[in-house]
Amino acid sequence: MTGTHKGTSITRRRALAVTGGTAAAGGLAFAGYQSAFADGTTATTAGTATETASASASATSGSGTCVLMSSVTEGPYYLDGALVRKDITEGKSGVPLTLRITVQDTTESCAPVAGAAVEIWHCDAWGYYSGYTTANPGGSAPAESEDGSTADDKTYLRGYQVANANGVVTFETIVPGWYTPRTCHIHVKVHTGGEKEDGTYEGGKVNYTGQLFFDDDIAEQIFELEPYSKHSGTWTKLDDDMVYDGGGASSGLLTLKAVHKKDPSKGYKGSITLGIDPDAENTGAGSGGGGGGTPPSGAPSGAPSDAPSASASSSASSS
Length: 319
Hints:
Elements: E1 2-4, H1 33-36, E2 49-50, E3 96-105, E4 111-112, E5 117-121, E6 158-162, E7 168-174, E8 185-197, E9 200-213, H2 216-223, E10 234-236, E11 255-258, E12 268-276, H3 310-315
Parallel strand pairs: 3-12
Antiparallel strand pairs: 1-10, 2-11, 3-4, 3-7, 5-6, 5-8, 8-9, 11-12
């Protein structure tokens, strides 16, 4: 089913096209961001785990078996040249999220893929992507330009990290908002064989293209907070999302722990293990992008002149 804001009555549906509205700024400050996620968080701030992923679906290090992750479309909001950096917020307001991703080799008994470059990108609290800030997120809210942050509208909420010896990367970001017709999600690609150059990652190949998802109950709590609450209208739940296939962790469902169990505004720690085949290639464009429902007609409304190529856009069944 779909969720509602501000008393809007919603009928159950599967959204199939990007529609309606403008988006807006809000006022959740990032004060205490670093301290909220510091190592050695005390018992009073450490939240209880919300297990959003089935243990049987998780890839388990050292078990001798891994789950090859389901690849899906990259969507129409991908941009080349993301920066190599841990903190991708650029001052964007929202509920803090520390995201820990472990990359494992499904062909080598869950061995860590050291040196893999993990790239993520996602929308802001009002449903806008950097580089596509005129694209319509649906619903009703003030314009993205009223955000008030100093974020670069071509780079915010995008970035790479290179995996350590244990195959682990960590990002500091915010929980994404929503936009029609999608549930709350983060896009991810895993690259190997390239190298850092001029602040970004160049060369190599894309081994995995996927999306990471949030439990409905957690998303609903977050969307009631500012700045998310400034975006009123309909948001799509997991069962009705055109990309999420219900497979739990192997389909990208994050395990989330609240930093403070009684105050979701303090943020979350999210984690997932991505089981990949380092010899495979999957860019998420064309027929290799995986399923995802009926694509919108053409590029997103208001997409800039440097939008993805026609092949990528046509295969992007959703952003």
